[in-house]
Amino acid sequence: MKILRTVAVKQVLTETSRQKLLDAYLHTKAQLEKECGQLKFEQKKLEKAGKLPPAEIKRQFEKEILSRKERMEQLEFQIGQLHMLPLGSELKESEVQAIIDIKPGDPWEDSQEEIIIRDGIIEEIRKR
Q1: Which residues contact 11 (CB under 8 A, 6 or more apart)?
Q2: Bridge-partner residues for 127, per DSSP?
Q3: Residue 17: which pLDDT band, with cuts at 50, 70 and 90?
Q4: Of all residues in the chain, what percent carry a pLDDT higher than 70?
Q5: What is the arithmetic mean of pLDDT over 102-116?
Q6: C-alpha–C-alpha distance, residues 68 and 26, integer Å
Q7: How many domains does the chain have?
Q8: C-alpha distances out from residue 51 to 56, 59, 62, Å
Q9: HEC states along 34-86?
Q10: What is the CA radius of gyration of the chain?
């Protein structure tokens, strides 16, 4: 019988993958900072228009800005953790769906697999 199963994709940390992750984190952080600036601009624009109560506008925009600042703090934490991880560490990158062939008598736990990637190339497919 064939079943659909979620398979973990893990990335082996190398200097190349560390730099790519760092670049992605920094790019996302810069994008969030840009969004915060744009939100502040939009807030002032709406306040000057005077169509809505200023307190309501401020509350709504502060909520949006705060969520982006929290995400930036998470990225800072992830950047710090990335620098501390030793090379060769396995990081969970994503999950994919795979068709797995099972038959009666197979151990259920052994039917779970992981895909290991090093610098964008599949290195190993292993059973957990």
Answers
A1: 17, 90, 91, 92, 93, 116, 117, 118
A2: 113
A3: very high
A4: 98
A5: 80
A6: 14
A7: 1
A8: 11, 15, 18
A9: HHHHHHHHHHHHHHHHCCCCHHHHHHHHHHHHHHHHHHHHHHHHHHHHHHHCC
A10: 22
Residue range(s) defining the domain that contains residue 99: 2-127
One-letter amino acid for residue 6 of the chain: T
Question: 98 has which bridge partners?
Answer: 5
Task: Give the pTM.
Answer: 0.77
| Whole-number pLDDT of residue 111 | 61
Amino acid at 90: E
Q: 11: burial class by Cβ within 10 Å (0-12, 13-18, 19+)?
A: buried
Place of tokens 């929290």: 70
What token pair was written down for 108? 């259920």
Distance in angstroms (rounded) separating the CA atoms of residues 68 and 62: 10
